[in-house]
Amino acid sequence: MKQSLVLNKVSDLVGTKSIFGKFKIGSFKFDGNKILRKFLIPALSILLFVGLWHTGSKALFQMEADYKIEKALTDQGREAAEAMQACIASGDVSCQPNTLPSPSQVWQSLQSLIADHKVISADKKAFAEKTAGINAKREAEGKAPITYTGRPSFVDQIFTSLKTVFAGFLLALIIAVPIGIVIGLSPVLRSSFNWLIQIFKPVSPVVWLLLVFMIVKTMTKDSNSDSAFIISFISVGLCAMWATLVNTAMGVSSVDKDYINVAKVLKLRPLQKVFKVILPSSLPLIFTGLRITLSVAWMVLIAIELLAQSPGLGSFVWEEFQNGAIDSNSKIIVAMFVIGIIGFLLDRLMLTIQNMVSFNKNDAI
Amino acid sequence: MSTTTIESKKNLGTVENGILYPSQVMLDLNDLKKVYPTPKGDYVVLEHLNLQIMKEEFVTIIGHSGCGKTTMLSMIAGLNEISGGNISVLGNPVKGPGPDRGVIFQAPSLMPWMTALQNVLLGVNQVFPHATKSQRNDIAKYYLHKVGLDGAFHKKAQELSQGMQQRVGIARAFAIKPKVLLLDEPFGMLDSLTRGELQDILIEIWNKEKITAVMITHDVDEAIFLADRVVMMTSGPRAKIGDILNIDFERPRTRKAVLEHDDYYTYRKHLIDFLEH
Ligand SMILES: Nc1ncnc2c1ncn2[C@@H]1O[C@H](COP(=O)(O)OP(=O)(O)OP(=O)(O)O)[C@@H](O)[C@H]1O
Ligand SMILES: [Mg+2]
């Protein structure tokens, strides 16, 4: 009873009372509880978050505006100050205080980014249609086709970033899993490589980038390959692979003793032992490692793209920051949310794969 | 101790022309010693342990917790190093683990990511590499059938109950046709009803296959019901064989017949007296 009272209040607040009215009394309690937990509370917390953000950005805007007017007053006198005040109130672009954008500004920026993407896509399509004939001819003559070289849209940047992160993730997987298995199998190797892992694991992404830069720059000197992309995905892979390496080694070295004994009694050959017993039993830990690797890769990617000047969300953020246009700040916030949401989705994806391959469903957290 | 062995009716062997030909000794533990190094110095678990187990014999081992039963069994299995003395199987010294000595562990220790059938096949494939795939499948299925798991061939091991998992463990052990079967409290984790069922299954397959079996148990009734001889170990450290009791019940046995037998309580008292001193 108490439960339903609270619920009614909550639903009044959110304005979804009609939905609740449909429930029968019998199943009401259970369903109500679930809906409350799964939808209403998260929805409320989002509202609260947006509200706080709105108030906060308002206050910051006011502070910045006051400061501007104050400055005009001390520097140029009363008239200038009044002009400034009027200018800020009119919403003129030239004098707007530069601070944390409000939720509605960010929303507008998102809309404009989407509109921009549509324009660029249409442009690209037109370009492709226009050059189709020429390109077919060029191909027949053995020449490289003409490609679109216009500015990439925000959505293009997202896909570039995803491409880089997957390349880095694959690199980490290809390096870390086999090495982890080998190290995990041999206590001698484990203790001899431990120092190396311990030293390299905490090295900052920036340093990895510089290191990779030194090597790749020299190696790609003569070729015309996309060295910014190569540098950034290798750096991402190197930064992110340690969790997989450590987890794989741990999983392989800590296989249940009973399983090892079974393998010994049956006299399984070494390769059979690895593929039939050791690997399957360490899969949950390997996947935990891969999950961490993917989320680290996504996190460092932004910083690395920014530094390597390789296209993607990182350089988008950096360009907007340098650009300093009126909506730059809100575009950065849009990018922040997009980065966060994609990171979350990638993690869910890994969790799903992990649950599919792991024999013990409870192991996946 | 060897005199005790000869006393056993079953193991007397045959007398021909006045010469005694003892039945074949399957397992010979000779002056066995086990030392575990610990931070506080060496810990001698077993010392001067002598035991002979005949072909086709079922021996159960009882003793206080921590006396070294598991240690002894894992040394026979070749999973634990021998510190002194030796163990031989049909006269060949044990040098490491091998499928001639099947083990059923206390925990079922099936690979949880494999099905019941795959778990049994893991061993069968190893021991019968030249058989065809369908022959190997038949062997595995035969033993799974024997332990009453007809409907569970393709269930993942982790989806099976403890009792069913241990059934797979029994099937896996018999399916590799070992010379010796080593069992370390295989039914210790099961409730008494399941335990009784599995004892029946075990003894039924054993009656058929006549594999030499050595089984550790904490349960005096189980020890009597299953065994030709019950081996009692003294408490550690430096544990050895304290006493051996011959169980002269007819085989095949039924639980009812055993419980109603006149000697049953004499045997039982003998074992409990030993454990309480
Ligand atoms: N790896 C080891 N290192 C040191 N000591 C050990 C080791 N394994 C066993 N022990 C010790 O050796 C003794 C015998 O152990 P064991 O497991 O063989 O006993 P058990 O008779 O099987 O006992 P339980 O009936 O409880 O299973 C115990 O005191 C135990 O603490
Ligand atoms: Mg034990």
C-alpha Rg of chain B, in Å? 19 Å
Number of strands of chain A: 0
Look up the CATH topology of the largest domain in chain A.
Answer: MetI-like fold
Please state the second-level CATH architecture of the largest domain in chain A. Orthogonal Bundle
Largest sheet of chain B: 6 strands, mixed
Helices of chain A, by number, come to: 13
Helix content of chain A: over 70%
Distance between the termini of chain A: 35 Å
Q: Any idea how many domains of chain A?
A: 2
Number of helices of chain B: 9
The CATH superfamily of the largest domain in chain A appears as MetI-like
Shape of chain A: globular
CATH fold descriptor of chain B? Rossmann fold
Topology at a glance:
The complex is a heterodimer of chains A (365) and B (277).
Chain A: H1 2-14, H2 17-21, H3 25-76, H4 78-90, H5 103-140, H6 154-185, H7 187-200, H8 205-219, H9 227-253, H10 257-265, H11 270-308, H12 313-323, H13 328-357
Chain B: H1 2-7, E1 14-16, E2 19-21, E3 25-38, E4 41-54, E5 58-62, H2 69-77, E6 84-89, E7 92-93, E8 101-104, H3 116-127, H4 133-146, H5 162-175, E9 180-184, H6 192-209, E10 212-216, H7 220-226, E11 229-233, E12 241-246, H8 255-260, H9 264-275
Parallel strand pairs in B: 5-10, 5-11, 8-9, 9-10
Antiparallel strand pairs in B: 1-2, 3-4, 3-6, 6-7, 11-12
Helix pairs in contact in B: 3-4, 3-5, 4-5, 5-6
